[in-house]
Amino acid sequence: MNKHKIFSMAFASVYPHYINKAEKKGRTKEDVDTIIFWLTGYNNTDFENILKNKTDFETFFNEAPQLNPNVSKITGVICGYRVEDIEDPLMQKIRYLDKLIDELARGKSMEKILRT
What we know:
Pfam families: DUF2200. It comes from Aestuariibaculum marinum. This protein is mainly alpha-helical. It has one domain (5-108): uncharacterized protein sp1917 domain (Helicase, Ruva Protein, domain 3, Orthogonal Bundle), CATH 1.10.8. The protein is 54% helix and 3% strand. The chain contains six helices and two strands, in the order ααααββαα. Helix 1 runs parallel beside helix 5 (89-105) and helix 2 (29-40) runs antiparallel to helix 5.
């Protein structure tokens, strides 16, 4: 079975698009980072290394310190798929992040985005 192309893409190549999407809607890079850290358990130092080393998405998620225990609360449609129904675990994690960034860009409060 062929791996999806995004699995081997550098996270650093997509990260600016997340920031751009958020900033177009009046949100900040710090908001994007907060979401990424909440979802993955990374801290700022580790995250800077990921960007500098051009770590791919597969490694980014496989080596994440701890996927947030509230990810099961992330539901809805992203790219035409219900995130809770995506069977590939890695693709599901990527889509969780996409969904959270979409919610940020749509103006949801951080409390709702972070499922607190």
